[in-house]
Amino acid sequence: MSMNSEGRVTRPEISAETTAAAEAPATFTGNRALMLEEALIFERDDYARTGVDIAEAPAAANRLGGLERHRAIGLPGLPEPEAVRHYTRLSRQNYAIDLGLFPLGSCTMKHNPRLNEKMARLPGFADIHPLAPVDTVQGALAVIDELAHWLVTLTGMHAVAMSPKAGAHGELCGLLAIRAAHDAAGSDRSVILVPESAHGTNPATAAFCGYKVENIPATADGRVDLDALTARLGPDVAGVMITNPNTCGLFERDMKRISDAVHAAGGYVYCDGANFNAIVGRVRPGDLGIDAMHINLHKTFSTPHGGGGPGSGPVVLSEALSPYAPLPFVAKQGDGSFKLIEEETAGEDHPGSFGRMAAFNGQMGMFTRALTYILSHGADGLRQVAEDAVLNANYVLRSLDGLLDAPFGASGPCMHEALFSDDGLAPGFTTLDIAKGLIDEGFHPMTMYFPLVVHGAMLIEPTETEGKATLDQFVGALRSVAERAKAGDAALKAAPAMAPRRRLDETAAARKPVLVWKDEPLPEAAE
Amino acid sequence: MRYLPLTDSDRQAMLATIGAGSIDDLFVDVPAEARLSGPIAGLAPHASELAVERHMSKLARRNLSAGEAPFFLGCGAYKHHVPASVDHLIQRGEFLTSYTPYQPEIAQGTLQALFEFQTQVARLFGCDVANASMYDGSTACWEAITMARRVTKRAKAILSAGLHPHYVSLAKTMARFTGDQLDSAAPSLTPGAPGDDMARLLDAIDGETSCVVVQNPNILGHVADLSELAARCHEKGALLIAVVTEPVALGAVRSPGEMGADIVVGEGQSIGVGLNFGGPYVGLFACAEKYVRQMPGRLAGVTTDADGQRGFVLTLSTREQHIRREKATSNICTNAGLCALAFSIHLTLLGETGLRRLATLNHANAVAAADRLAKLPGVELLNTAFFNEFTLKLPVEARPVVRSLADKGILGGVSLGRLYPGEPTLANGLVVAVTETVTGEDVEALAQALEAEIAA
Hints:
The complex is a heterodimer. By secondary structure, chain A is of the alpha/beta class. Chain A folds into 2 domains: 252 residues, 3-Layer(aba) Sandwich (Aspartate Aminotransferase, domain 2); 129 residues, Alpha-Beta Complex (Aspartate Aminotransferase, domain 1). Helices cover 33% and strands 10% of the residues of chain A. In chain A, the strands form 4 sheets. In chain A, strands 3-9-8-7-6-4-5 form a 7-stranded mixed sheet, with helices on both faces. In chain A, strands 12-14-13 form a 3-stranded antiparallel sheet. In chain A, strands 1-2 form a two-stranded antiparallel sheet. In chain A, helix 3 packs antiparallel against helix 12, helix 6 crosses helix 7 and helix 12 crosses helix 14. Chain A starts with a strand and ends in a 16-residue tail after the last helix. By secondary structure, chain B is α/β, with parallel strands linked by helices. Chain B has 2 domains: 263 residues, Type I PLP-dependent aspartate aminotransferase-like (Major domain) (Aspartate Aminotransferase, domain 2), CATH 3.40.640; 104 residues, Aspartate Aminotransferase, domain 1 (Alpha-Beta Complex), CATH 3.90.1150. A 7-stranded mixed sheet of chain B has the order 1-7-6-5-4-2-3, with helices on both faces. A 4-stranded antiparallel sheet of chain B has the order 10-11-13-12. In chain B, strand 8 and strand 9 form a beta hairpin. In chain B, helix 5 packs parallel to helix 11 and helix 6 packs across helix 7. Chain B starts with 7 loop residues before the first helix and ends with a helix. At the A-B interface, helix 2, helix 3, helix 4, helix 5 and helix 6 of A face helix 1, helix 2, helix 3, helix 4 and helix 5 of B. Chain B: Pfam families: GDC-P. Chain B: This is Probable glycine dehydrogenase (decarboxylating) subunit 1.
């Protein structure tokens, strides 16, 4: 088997009849060769079994204060071989970056090096308690300090708050610092401006810490409307939240002018750093006047996404906001040892801190991985990361010229992601059909219907860890699916036909939510 | 560079397709004054696996890991044995390197695992429904307080003195900005029931109260019956939020849901997730079904596909930030997916039988240790009711004792001086956690070292 120049696999043609999995004969088990159906653990009669050998408890008086559990909990147990099979079978129903291109725009699915995993599992990092005496965890504090140093250096900022647990938690951290700074200045500004192309987390975060949110429109070329933004600035505006590179995949050329205008009006600039991988090593947000920016370690520095998380969202801060950074805070002392500044000493060492925003010391396991990745890439590698990410995205953008509408294709090079719309598809065909068609081609679809400023948006982010041959094959597949959607191929409406499941009814799931297993048969399962 | 597949000739060919002369042409929108031309200050060039391993291993060796020492630390993070297959399974690439299941047809593995996780959490906590996990227990606790505000339309939360001080600290940080009123108190070293302030809580609930937040077992290890508190809350139109930082306890102790709690949140680290110096952990969140549309976070639900086959999807997303923007129930747009999976796999291996055995073993070990340590001269065991963690009142300040024990290679507990630096009345308190990983020799080593420290 080989690939031709368009990335199409060249092998004997297989007729349409035999490829339609839906027409394959039913099997007794419901399995289809290597694609195995797997019951829920609750549907097996395994309530008395266990897969763990636990030592017999020594005889001891019960001191539970009369609160012993009497009723059964209802937790099935699987012996180890069956547990391993259950989860291995489930795993095979997932798409993953280890299987192929995962071009989710704005989510940044890049290769996850296994060295990161190995380092995070060293007992010296994985098996230490957050409240252990500080002199027994100096190596962990050194990791935090070293990573913090590189994050500050790479962004050109002044300090970094390490404890936020995810990107959206980092946004919260940045806005709390902005509020604390205004409070300290005796100002009670109440409004945060958010461009309409922003991630939904931006307005939600502003509301979650008590701000009113006002939207700022985008220009026809996909950037923040500078005039509309400056016109709205005033004594009630606490700050602006901007994503740069933005969610249309474009660099905000006016970033410095925006920052200057916001500062002149007494506000602060928050930058959503979700897309930092496009500029790492080439642009320092600090030079653009940013006051706070979260860095999704999992995106730029390749910590695993794990089916949704955990994330990690350290926030770099300008000099103006640094005094308000949350607790705890790692500080290097004169003798080279590290100190953990908590509530106890915050009064002397870090008096302006707005306080604690998570129980312990942040996502240590992610810090280890991110530092491993930074050191592996080094200065030359990180710069190459941004260059290859941008090159790959522009290659996808231009390879689809004339096929899919690229609303901002003339607005300048895209950064790390290419944006298309559903303009020009046959009546009744949508972005969703293209996405589901790509599944049958063996690709994870791109981000759909985001950003909201583009109708039927398709946001494609290849990342820097894809080679040219993979991109050619993806472009070829997308071309084929898009041509079917333009021609009104009815079979595309039924895609995916070859995935573990055909199109799932999300409306029914929301109308009558079934969120936990109930012992009576589920109505949906009865058919 | 081993992580970057493009060759220079690929790059040239691709630039030609794009119609760009050089990479710099792709960065034209970056103003010249913001472009970095030189190398990143101080950062070495790319390094081999071997070189990076050496550097990181050297840093790791500067830490005293829990497995190297008799280990008694708890207070919200616990050392339990995690079966080898848990870590093996979460490292399968199809779990480790998958993303949020936005395309459910090719994410059934993650979605089914989350649905099973939700069911396990709901059952463990004695609640109707649970979500697909939160960042950690402390942030889940604050989210529960904001949810109670939405449900009751009131903004006064009463926090138990037995609630983890970091959870209290976080709530105070947030309340300063959101305008919620918090009524909190420091715990006391009450003999019999340390940290328990049931009478204060019962007394404080009024028609303005949105919720009472109580941790069980509490920060000092005391376990309490929450039934009367739940009844009083409901009488006054308030919600009872129960916090569980040691879910293994629920293998032995009645669940908060069974005692009447409306929302139960917890830290799931104990089951399947390592200590990791504080994170990543996994927040657990469960509640009564009638409040489901006010819940924060993600939810996996059941549906059918075009062939009528059962499948799973993320659902009720109209509560979430990507649709509701500033009107969302929370700004959270993730869950601790991989940690939730580890929790769920470990709990599946344990099953009801294993969890009960594990809980019984934890309790028995803790009782034996408590009795041994209470015999030390001048040492008082404050708890009569506890699960695997209890509080000792030492005749001296506990913090320097913990410090000196570490020098002897014993991680001997959490001093209340560390947790409550502003409360001198608590300075002699030492919270000792004893799990299945603690041996009789470990307890004897602690007892003898503690005795020597007190005498010194």
